[in-house]
């Protein structure tokens, strides 16, 4: 079962490092990306405030969109054989998308809904975000695989 | 000013996640994404502490923006969690994929609840 040894963790793949990348440029790229991602998340939360009650649509959208984009990115960078700069993945994947999406804010939203007794909304938000994010990363990965395979077929 | 705090927090939180993930993943070979679970758990506890402390006036809104929105927001991640769960499912480890989703949600929810209790305690 060789497939079982495939890496699961997209950010840290210690077994397969084709060319060693110095750690400081990686940390710089991750940091810059994280700053941009966090700023984008803050902007979305300001634009669509949760208004104290109800379904936290902004963070729901952030986590679903960020998950869909990492599906696209990982297939392009890891699977497609596309030659990209070694800092693209740390910058976009670990930094921008990691900083944009947030698990702690999701948990805090859930905790707030439960504390206010909005049980149905809490369950809907919990399962809706899981289903939306996992569906988005799956769709992003599958569609990107189809696209690059189709383009490989055309170019030979 | 608030933007600067969020950006600074994000600039620190994301590399902290990368370093923690790397340190945790180098210490086991199980194929389970313990690194992401670790940062999501720690970030949730810290966000709980900050939010609890702000609620009782023991911390300012600036701390909430810098440490809560910026640092904890970027220290934790949903996108990597989603991708790792997908990879577990795609490589035939569906039980681990389901376990990762269930444990991540429970640990983060427990983390913010525990943290909020601690944070409110800071108000004396």
UniProtKB/TrEMBL annotation, chain A:
UniProt key word Amino-acid biosynthesis: no
Name the record gives this protein: Fluoride-specific ion channel FluC
Family assignment from sequence similarity: Belongs to the fluoride channel Fluc/FEX (TC 1.A.43) family.
Substrates-to-products reaction catalysed: fluoride(in) = fluoride(out)
Function as written in the Swiss-Prot or TrEMBL entry: Fluoride-specific ion channel. Important for reducing fluoride concentration in the cell, thus reducing its toxicity.
A single GO molecular function term of this UniProt record: metal ion binding
InterPro entries: FluC
Positions with a binding annotation for Na(+): 98, 101
Keyword Cell wall biogenesis/degradation listed: no
Organism: Streptomyces finlayi
TrEMBL record, chain B:
Record flagged with keyword Transmembrane: yes
Gene: crcB2
Cellular component terms (Gene Ontology): plasma membrane
Activity modulation: Na(+) is not transported, but it plays an essential structural role and its presence is essential for fluoride channel function.
Keywords from the named record: Cell membrane, Ion channel, Ion transport, Membrane, Metal-binding, Sodium, Transmembrane, Transmembrane helix, Transport
InterPro entries documented for this protein: FluC
Reactions the enzyme catalyzes: fluoride(in) = fluoride(out)
Binding locations of Na(+): 73, 76
Keyword Isomerase (UniProt): no
Protein name (Swiss-Prot/TrEMBL): Fluoride-specific ion channel FluC
Cellular compartment(s): Cell membrane
Organism of provenance: Streptomyces finlayi
């Amino acid at each position: 079962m060789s497939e079982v040894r495939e890496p699961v963790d997209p950010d840290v793949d210690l077994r397969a490092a084709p060319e060693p990348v110095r750690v400081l440029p990686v940390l710089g790229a991750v940091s810059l990306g994280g700053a941009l991602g966090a700023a984008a998340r803050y902007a979305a939360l300001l634009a669509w405030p949760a208004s104290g009650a109800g379904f936290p649509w902004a963070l729901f959208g952030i986590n679903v969109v960020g998950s869909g984009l990492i599906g696209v990115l990982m297939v392009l960078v890891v699977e497609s054989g596309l030659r990209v700069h070694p800092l693209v993945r740390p910058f976009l994947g670990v930094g921008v998308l990691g900083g944009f999406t947030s698990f702690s804010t999701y948990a805090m939203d859930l905790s707030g809904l439960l504390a206010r007794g909005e049980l149905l909304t809490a369950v809907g938000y919990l399962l809706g975000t899981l289903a939306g994010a996992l569906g988005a990363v799956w769709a992003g990965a599958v569609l990107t695989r189809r696209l690059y395979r189709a383009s490989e077929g055309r170019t030979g | 000013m608030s933007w600067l705090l969020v950006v600074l927090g994000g600039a620190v939180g994301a590399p902290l996640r990368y370093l923690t993930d790397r340190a945790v993943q180098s210490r086991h070979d199980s194929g389970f994404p313990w690194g992401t679970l670790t940062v999501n758990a720690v970030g949730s506890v810290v966000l709980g502490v900050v939010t609890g402390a702000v609620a009782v006036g023991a911390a300012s809104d600036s701390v909430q923006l810098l440490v809560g929105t910026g640092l904890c927001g970027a220290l934790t991640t949903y996108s990597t969690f989603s991708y790792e769960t997908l990879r577990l499912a795609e490589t035939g480890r569906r039980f681990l994929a389901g376990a990762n989703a269930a444990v991540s949600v429970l640990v983060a929810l427990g983390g913010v609840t525990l943290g909020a209790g601690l944070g409110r305690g800071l108000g004396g």
